[in-house]
Please model this.
Amino acid sequence: MPKETAKTKKRQARARRTIVALRRQPMGERLSEWLQSPPLGWGILIGIVFILGCSSLVVWTRSSPTVSVGRIMDQTRTVRFAFSTDDIEATERARDVARAAASPVYISNPDVLSAIRGDLENLPGAIAGVEDLESIPDELRAAFRLTEPGLEAVRTAAESEASLTAWQQGVADLMQQLRSKPLLSAQDWERATREGGHEFIQLRYAPEGAGPSPDPFSTPRGSEVSTENPEQLAQAMRELVRGQATFAGPAAQRVVNRLIESPRPTFRFDSAATAAAQNDAANAIETITREIPRGTVVFARGDQLTPTQYELYRAELATYADLASAARIWLRRLGLLGAVMIVTLTVGAYAALFVPRLARNPGRVAGLACVLAGGLLLACITTIAAPEAAAVTTTLPVVIATGLLALAYDRRAALAFGGALAVLTALALDFTSGRLALTLFAAAVIAWRLDDVRARNAVVSAGAWTGLALALGIIGAGAIERPLAPGVWVELGIDALLAGLGGVLVGACLLAGLPWIERAFGITTPLTLIDLRDSKQPLLKELQRRAPGTYNHSLNVASIAEAAVDAIGGDTLLTYVGGLYHDIGKMNKPEYFVENQSGGPNKHDKLAPAMSLLVIIGHVKDGMEMARAYGLPRPLHHFIEGHHGSTLVEYFFHRAKTKAQADADETGSESADMPAELEYRYPGPRPRTKEVAILMLADAVESATRAMPDPTSSRIDQLVRDMARKRLLDRQFDDSDLTFRELTLAVEAISKTVASLYHGRIAYPAGDKPKTDKADKGEQATKPESDEGGEQKRA
Model:
């Protein structure tokens, strides 16, 4: 039979046995036992806090927008109450118009204007007394393009004081008009004439000298002149000079020549002042409001959400919260509270009936509540913060919580609790049925892949499988539920990619968080147990060095118990590791235990039975101290403290009774002072788990079988059954939930395993009989003094 098939059949048999065991005890009886248990009060308190916290989170999340601009909407939303709202889009349009209509600002170039003014004012004086054109400096002649007629006309303006004053006044009037006729660079001219919707441009003047600057002046758009367009410049300057009566004929042309010769811009664009003017114009526009009647569609299924629709949706949610009646709001809140309460009660009942080790421990109940509440909080916050990634943020928290619980407990419990978290997340984020099914599917995949994890890469592999399942599920669910609008397949592809990467990230996070998981839940994962079973572990190496016989005994007990636990569907790895460490306390006094004695006198021969008792039972206390000192996980502690339970140390009890009777006979006393049986029992506790109960039986059987002179299969089987019956009648299994059927299966498995380990020897002829070592002879010659397991029967 293939290995996987055999493993599957064992799991199925284990599940059937569990179901049968549960059916034997009526549901009402199990629930009644739980209601009467001490942890119930803590459970109720934790449940109340959980219900109130999760309900508040669900209510808050449902009142927050969980949609993203640019995403294609899956549902249609309408307005529930008429309200007025700021029309952001219309307001922005109006403000854009105002910005465009704002007059751009140009500031004067005082150096250029001063140079023009100085040249015009100084021209008559510069040519006064000049006899001919050749006597004038080349720069001045070129700037004004002077000719003989022009020279004579300008010389006439300087003939008298009156004509010179008239010239200066003409220059002043010309400069005044030039300040309202801006000469611009080609770039500034393009900006002034081609851009924006303004009707005027604003001219501002920088100081030109000691006098005050003129006030800002607005000139109509189109009055600008480009210094790089010669024809436009010449035409504009002629018109400007023609308007001055002072300049006429050849003199006017000289002035025009100065203005168009090597022209420089008289104004330049002021970007900072223009931006301030535009902002002032935009801010002057009041916010536009509009009335939104009831029933207006905020966004429709298949729409790609716009910023305006998003703001309208936010306003609708706020309006509903303000205008809805208190009865309507609280009725909805109470409905959500009731839904959360139902989920919580279902989780509590499931834990009480099917995960008793969790329900009996308030700390673990609190840990479970924290995991579920933390997963819900993570899903809600991340979805509100990044609604565009809702396909991932709504599912991965559930997957993480399910993975944590699968590592902490088992797949069935993890799937149940993960399903409860998926329902709570659906309540908070208003899931569709397809999204809920997708979340449950992802939780089931990670629970399936995290069964009996025995390698670290298995955790990462589980995350990768979950990511693949999420990616395929998102595409499949999207094809069924989402509107097939343009662009939706791109969104599905991105969501699937993010989900796949998120699944791998979940696996890595679970692997990194394993130590935290173990501390938080007080459990030990298989990965840690695999590390602990390595013979190179410091504690096991110390046991091999100081007590080699005990180490070999522990190896055998671990193998026997592992086979028996596997037969009943228990935790085989935990049992094996527990068997390795159950007798570590014997390292303190190894010579007092027979498996470590190599012949010679027995140290107990010189001790009183009571003193020997203290040495024997002391190995349990010593083992617990070593377990704490070496940081062994808590689940292994019970194997150390409970593998003898409260059994009787029978050998020394009988020895004490014999000694007491002998003392009485020696003194002639009629009644001997017999020791009480209670004084010669281990302090306990009795096994609380099936694994420890079976280890107790395996420990006793292994020790007793070592002393059998002829360990045949039938004798071993009878020995195992007798010891199991004796432990059962001594009530050592009462606290372990071990059923009769499971005990029977364990006995059969122990018998087979022990028979394979301690089979009988072949009798050789006297002359051909091989030599045996001293230990073999000792084993075959030793007669068991008691059927008790462990050290007390052969000490």
Remarks:
- Confidence is low (pLDDT under 50) at residues 769-795.
- The chain has three domains: 37-74+326-523, 100-279, 529-647+682-790.
- The domain at 529-647+682-790 is CATH 1.10.3210.10 (Hypothetical protein af1432).
